[in-house]
Each structure stands twice: as C-alpha cells, then as structure tokens.
From TrEMBL:
Residues 1-20 form the signal peptide. This is Extracellular solute-binding protein. SUPFAM superfamilies: Periplasmic binding protein-like II. It comes from the Bacteria. Gene3D superfamilies: Periplasmic binding protein-like II (3.40.190.10). InterPro entries: Bact_solute-bd_prot1, SBP. It holds the Pfam family SBP_bac_1. Keywords: Signal. It comes from Paenibacillus oralis.
Length: 467
C-alpha cells in the first residue's frame, strides 16, 4: 500500500517537473529584434510622418534614420553624385528616391530590390493603389516594380462655380487644353479696379506672362535644351506658339498679374486676402490639392469671409495626350537596397506605409499630398478628389524642360536671360521671334560656359584625388 502511494507521489512530482519544464521553455525565448536603417530628409519629421506609426505596429523593428541633410553639406556640387555617395557610405536598407529620374537610374544600375516577388509571396494587395502610378514606376523600372510611393502630387483646374453661374458661362470640363482655358478666361468681364475686379484666370506664382508661358510649355513637354547634344532648342515654332498664347491672354486683361505687388509679408489673414482665388476673384486657377486646405483656413482666418462654390476638373492637358498629365510628382519613393541584409524588415516598412491602415490615419489632411491608396480619401471638406486621379502620368523624361540635366549653375543664368527677353516682349520692344533667337543665342553661351566650368571642376577633383 505504501509502495502504491509512494509510486503515485513520484508520478505527480515527475509530471510537475515535466510540466514546469514545458511551460518554462518558451518563456526563456526572447523575441528577436531587428534594426532597420532608413534614409530620410529629417529624423524628427520621419518619425512624425512614418516611424512612430510603424513602430507601434512593429515594436521588434528598431529604426535608425540616415539623415539626408548631409548630402547638401557635401563638397560635391552635383546633387546626383552626392546622393549616390551618401547611399554608398550609409548603406541604408530603405532608400528614399525623390524623383522618377533618380528611381530609374538606381533601378537600371541594379541597386534596388525587385518588389514583384515579395508582393507575390505575401499576396500584398496593390489593386487599390492608383494604377497609373504603378504603371509609371514599372515603366521607369524596365518592366519591374522597384519602389512604392504612398502619396503624390498633381495639379488640376479649380474654378469658382458661382462666377461661372453669375455670368452664364459654361463651367470647365475634364481634359481642357491651355487654349481652351485662356479662351474661357477671356469670356469674363475685364472692367473694374485691379484690386477688386474679377479675372478669368490667375496663378499664385510669379509674373503672369513668364509663369503662364512656362506652364503651357511644361504641359506640352517642350524642351528648352537638349541635354544629349548640349544645345539650346528654345527657338522653335512650338515655343513661339506657347509664348504667343500666353501673351495674348495677358494682353486681353483676363489674366491676373500680381506683378511686383505680390504678398511680401504680414499676418495669415493678410496673406489670404492677397490671394484672389481664395477671395472669390478668380474664375479659374491651376493648383494642387493643398489649395483646398488653404480655402478651409481662409474661412477661419479672414473676417467676414464670403465662401463660394468651387469645382475641380482634370487638366490642363497636352492636345497630343488628352488622357495624360506631365504635372505629377512623387513626395517620396521608398525602395529596398538590393543587397540589404534586412530586406524582410525593409519590406514590412514598405508594406505598412503603402497600406490601407496607414492611409486611413493620414486621410485627414492634405499636408503630404494625395494618397496613392485609393478609396480611402474620397473627398476633403465635402469636395470630391476624383479629378486628381483621372489623368495618367505622362513620361516626363528630360526633367524640367531639359534643364534638369544641365549644370546647376546654368539655371539661374537661363532664367535671367529669359525674364529679360520676355519683359521686352511684353513692353512691345521686341517680337517673340526676336526674343526666342536672343534666348537661344545667349542661353547657348551660358550653357557652354557652365559645361566648361563643370568639366574643369571634374579635372580638378581628379588631381586632388591622385595627389
């Protein structure tokens, strides 16, 4: 009997020890923590915009930010070279690319990881990401997807529906060309005091003639120079037509021209009062989605503000590409470095910041542009955002009028030459033909000089390296 009791007691003790061993085993295992290095403009802003939300969902991934401000402090004056040098030195797991040109270059050089296999492996939903953006990124990646952008910016045509109704003019429609916009603007009255009258069209930027002619040229994909041949190409029939269209619009007095009387400082209320579209004095303007935020803020900041009904349509467009726009830009394209040892953690980051959950959190403001994840932010303050998603991004190879690939020192000189000649045209001292020829000639001299100086600096750098 005693033996039976002792036997049972031993069984209980052994089972207890076995149970303790089984229960205690996993408790001793610590969850593995991984480190992720992300390059970004500013560490504080990164965590506000992305990092804090991501680490809440992924507490086992520690993020280190490689601050990109050092790129601008680099002695290397060529931004692209300084950028590549930064990536090589910092070896970030997640690379931030701020343009499709940069993205295309890194993809072509094999520096980015192909995301298609990761998307297929995890069955990651890309169906509700703005298809045109995915198409553009694949096109720039040679048919493969190497990066994702959670947001983007694109301009559209805003119009004051109350003014169109008041003067019995048909409202704007999707896919308007600049010719149609200016023709519509000229149907509005041009009488009254400059500071109180209405205008058919206007912009927040620069002088009307220079800004409008550049906007027309950008929409139509005109190039001021050919970076491959290093030759100016502005003296052409296409450029002449763009300048003539802008000049006719300005001369009609239907276009608002801030001239030298633009906002130069003051309170927020004074700023909003200086913006004619916000104050209901422009029938049409071209701007990005953040204009809706300005409209909201103006209502609260301006005493006795008079709200008005607005409409938004897609455009303007190049007549040759009626369903596309060259006015799309990415805030940030995130990609994974091809040889990153933390590719899985990097992919978790990309999935999160391009996912629906993140989009829902960020859908309350337009601070960072439009969300690429569609269906989450359908309107802002009751205003539909559909117009911003209607046009496809057109290929904008060559950057800003071809000037992007020229030496940095050239742009300022070119702008001075162009502004000088356009001023003479507007004053009637020169014809557009004469101005274009002069811009071409003086611009070529400035361009040749800029390339020579760039070459000299390269040679100087080689000598310093070898010595």
């Amino acid at each position: 009997m005693k033996n039976g009791i002792l036997y049972k007691l031993m069984l209980v003790i052994i089972c207890g020890l076995l149970f303790a061993g089984c229960a205690g085993g996993p408790a001793k295992q610590e969850t593995q923590t991984s480190t992720l290095k992300v390059m970004f403009w500013d560490e504080s802003y990164f965590f506000t915009q992305y990092g804090d939300l991501f680490t809440m969902k992924n507490p086992n991934i520690e993020i280190e930010v490689a601050n990109m401000q050092s790129i601008y402090n680099d002695e290397e004056k060529d931004y692209d070279k300084a950028f590549a040098k930064f990536v090589e030195k910092e070896q970030p797991d997640v690379i931030l690319l701020n343009s499709t040109e940069n993205y295309e270059k890194f993809a072509a050089e094999g520096k980015l990881m192909d995301l298609d296999t990761l998307i297929a492996r995890d069955k990651y939903d890309t169906e509700t990401i703005y298809p045109a953006l995915i198409e553009l990124l694949k096109e720039k990646g040679g048919g493969k997807l190497y990066g994702l952008a959670s947001s983007f910016n694109v301009n559209a045509i805003f119009y004051n529906a109350d003014l169109f109704s008041k003067y019995g003019i048909d409202p704007p429609h999707d896919g308007m060309t600049w010719q149609e916009i200016i023709d519509t603007a000229r149907r509005f009255p041009t009488d009254g005091d400059k500071d109180s009258r209405i205008y058919g069209y206007g912009s927040r930027y620069g002088d009307a003639f220079g800004e409008l002619s550049s906007a027309i040229a950008m929409t139509q994909g005109l190039q001021a120079l050919n970076p491959d041949t290093k030759k100016m190409t502005i003296n052409s029939d296409s450029w002449k037509q763009a300048f003539q269209l802008a000049l006719d619009g300005v001369k009609s007095k239907a276009i608002y021209d801030p001239g030298d009387n633009g906002f130069s400082g003051g309170t927020m209320e004074e700023y909003y009062k200086s913006q004619p579209f916000l104050m209901g004095r422009l029938a049409m303007t071209i701007d990005g989605p953040y204009l809706l935020q300005y409209l909201k803020e103006a209502k609260n900041a301006v005493k006795d503000y008079k709200p008005f009904q607005i409409g938004i349509v897609a455009g303007p467009v190049d007549p040759a590409l009626p369903d596309s726009t060259r006015d799309v830009s990415f805030n940030e394209i995130f990609a994974i470095r091809a040889d990153s040892p933390n590719a899985d953690a990097a992919w978790e980051f990309l999935k999160f910041v391009n996912g629906e959950e993140y989009a829902k959190v960020k859908s309350r403001t337009l601070n960072n542009g439009l969300l690429s994840r569609m269906g989450v932010m359908k309107d802002y303050e009751g205003q539909s955002l559909d117009a911003f998603y209607k046009l496809k991004p057109a290929d904008s190879s060559g950057g800003y009028m071809g000037i992007s690939d020229a030496p940095d020192s050239f742009y300022g000189q070119y702008q001075q030459i162009k502004d000088r000649e356009l001023d003479l045209v507007q004053k009637g001292s020169k014809s557009i033909d004469e101005a274009l020829q002069k811009i071409q000639e003086d611009g070529q001299v400035a361009l040749d000089k800029a390339y020579k100086e760039e070459e000299a600096k390269k040679e100087e750098g080689k000598e310093d390296t070898s010595s």
